[in-house]
Design goal:
- By secondary structure, the chain is α+β, with helices and mostly antiparallel strands.
- The chain is built from six helices and eleven strands.
- Strands 2, 4, 5, 6, 7 and 8 form a six-stranded antiparallel sheet that branches. A three-stranded antiparallel sheet has the order 9-10-11, covered by helices on one side.
- Strand 9 and strand 10 form a beta hairpin.
- The chain is flat.
Amino acid sequence: MFARTAVFILLILSDGPTVAHCQIKATPISSRSPAQTFPRISGMADVVPQMHINQLLAERENQDRAQRLDCLRTHPPGMKSSFSESIHVAYLSKRFLSIEVSASWDGCAAYPNLDISKPLTINLTTGAQIDWDSFFSAPLVEKYLRRASLDRDCAQIINRPETQFSFWLDGKARRLMVKPDLPHVTAACATLTGIPFSELRGLVKDSADMNDLLRYSAAGN
């Protein structure tokens, strides 16, 4: 499984037959706690933004490791706490690095938290984490609801102005992955759903961003 994923990440970096092969790499591709390791970028033409991006990744790695250690140290007497996290490079192009992060913890909060999405997507041309609110020209809640196949109660819970979402790019599925960030009492309605890149036409503000997604999708694999 690991070998197949590694090959996919390296081959997909070509934008097409008329574009030079992109040498940007992210390693490791996957990791799990207790050795929570976010990838580091190499192969960028300009080492200065590459250094800034790797610093951002190191800071996020330290934050997540600290969260795990805090959880393991904080639990009621006589009880044990647990914390697990998986980190996976889901999308890598000359423009974006998108990392799928899923965490679960128990015994260090008022209630168990299972499969919490904590993704990270970085624009490699700016060296900054994507602000999804400004990435899109309109909310995606309608597209999400059409794809999610929720019952009426869950659809009403999610179709509220205050609902926030976690996003990341999945190159293998060629989809924008969307998961609502809901409080514990309604967390069962937080269905993970993928929206095909092709359906985002007209919703992504920057044409260069949209073209990157379409090129990645067209490359297949």
